[in-house]
């Protein structure tokens, strides 16, 4: 009966909830072991060479297996440090079911097993997990703390603290187990312990990361709230304060969440906000949220994750907190389980349930997605997640993350351990297990469970290593650096084991000897290094928490002394800087936790330098804020955009991006002739638009407009002021669109022209426009007919419920009295079915004095129509060296280089996405009613490792087209299906097709020779989709700068939320070139989906979807 209950818990979590359990996977990850390269950076040393023979052997049995204990394969850790103070780092391994092992470093990569002599093997019949080395008692010798866990009695889970008694004449250190004496003999289910001085009183405190060994319960709002209120000292995280050598549990008093909803797998300590106090990042498995605990300097922590981080990994595992981009601020990487290759993505369970996702958000568990997350510290208290852009998001079932400069080029690289012996989230197995349980009428016996375990597919993955390119871009160097060896690896650590100036790697494997990789950088390159040993004052003898900044050749590097990192492991406390080929260091600054500071000028390179706190004479001041260029001020316009409680993917599950969330649109003009700009704010669905009149002093008051109220059922998507009837007053055109619950020919789509009486009073012109029952998304004004009167181009955005069919677009010709006629067929027939238009602008692109038209849209090229003899002709191919087909969102036409010609800035999807596209490997969208059931089936596909695969999962495919269930009866049959396998050539030939080959937000400079030339924007412009662009001159240097805003919060679940844009400021050089202004310096902290921006004097007015308007003022102009 007990086993039956176990299975009844496991199976619904796999199938019914659509969420994974724990952390596992299958197949290859694309970095195939094709033989060792000729001169790899790392050389794997055999156990016979090193005498390190440790192997974390797991023996599956009736009582011990992954279906009885889900963390069965989570593995053990590695700790490295000089235990006998001979100048060589020693190595300690923890084994789940086998004795721990301690190896004394004898030099020249030779080691001696001294486990028995040192008495540190750990207890038999217990489950050992994380290990860390720290000088716990402050006597100058490293001690060892070992964590225990498992589905065992509490007394078998008692953690151990081995106090170093010093080395004998033979150089072998001995230890005594004294956890009880120090108050650290926790009997909880522990993952890892981290020692650091959280209260800055001069001694080391301890954070203990625990995890609940039981399956995550089915959650609801009321039950979850009750669970979170209850402290669970066995399973929840704990914080122990060091009170003079005895540790006291102060978890609840310190403000840490420590309930049964704890599945902690990673903990990183660093001063993330630059105030001099150590903060704590905790990564949790399952949908339990991660925590970003900011030190409150009063003996506790405050979780600020929701305020500082937009989204996190779903099944967060190991982590690292380190400065990877050399801006002296610690960044955060958390690991998850998204495979790199298509096959494993299609075979393994992944969260795809919107209801459960929404429940997690309501529970306060933040937005979580199944992939690695790289959180870049912007220096202003916020983090921008760019793991996909950096190339680090997909590393399969990953455990340990370690940032370190392995090639000594001055940039921290990344090592990730990977693998699981059995893929128990393989969806074919999950279904098989479900069927098996249902068919066992006599109940499930332990032998049945073990039989199922043996039927779980197995796979060996390789670990990963990524070379840091120095530009937030990482290159997969696994094969080139010699690490492409199949394994199931967990804990890992780095250290210069042979003292040759480069970092070696030690990896704890399941059912395989541990890896010892010797780094050969010292012989393969001319790169230099500097190693630092920190000696703290008082009980913190290692100077844990010290902050070191190295200055060399205009470059800065920053490290913090915090050895416990990665996964269940601790690295060498000897800090390491790679210098590249620079042969000198300008200076090295060391700031100790006490605030004492010392600076070494021109320290000698290629050495181990010891720095001591007692020699520090200076004092460092933390928290000195740089002046922001912009500051947020109360919005002069009080307007809240309508809240939309809708999900576009319920209507069309295979949409690429949501369509409904397009507002608010903004437009400005002096509507009442008082010399001040007034502002129109477009209303959202079932919300009236509003007109705000500017007053002297810069305030705005809303002017009641009955005509707007009468059209509240519509959704304004774009608007423009212009003099439609030639009376000298700015009239107003409002484009109406939307998706949500609109029908394809919905009457609410009719665009509106409102006439101005000269005093700012607007009335609807009933017969001004032809019937236009199209969801429009863009409008622009221009004299396209050449008669001197303003005409209109109106772009169709979408056909609701039938994406991506082409909506109708319009060329409306003005009779001069404010009445418009649809002349598309006569003057520009290509415009009618142009595509999914998102924006448009008029300009004289060729200098002939005629008004031309530029149009952008989703799955469209940047399109140029020139005005020839009163007709608009598509001349895109003439103006661009290729068709830049993208998911374009926004268009700005402006002379950026002062040559009098219009240039273009176009907002696109960016590069921080699973979807990639280029000329050779385009992203495509085939669409038609493939199964003849009356609905459109849009199939997104893009290339993964050189093959074009449909992005849709088997479940999504069968839900969309039920007939596909017979074609692909299981997940394995679909796992390798390419786009050409999915549909026949005949089916694809009759389908609609859209393509994209360019997803970057772009700048195109008008060269004056009939060509627009691409000018790359800074990488920060590719962090997130861009929907709002404006020029400004914030520094008054006469050169145009740019503001870019964007994001997508309601994205497709598997693609996730795009939120890495907080408002980007780009400084222009007057020649069409731009550089990014650091976020902290710029001062923008805009959260949410920016959809519009207006420049009003010395302010920017920003329209954020479903939020109040925001305003930022240029400080220099106050």
From TrEMBL:
Keyword vocabulary terms for this entry: Signal
Residues of the ASPIC/UnbV domain: 543-610
InterPro entries (alphabetical): Crtac1, FG-GAP, Integrin_alpha_N, UnbV_ASPIC
Keyword Signal: yes
PANTHER family hit by this protein: CARTILAGE ACIDIC PROTEIN 1
Protein name: RNA-binding protein
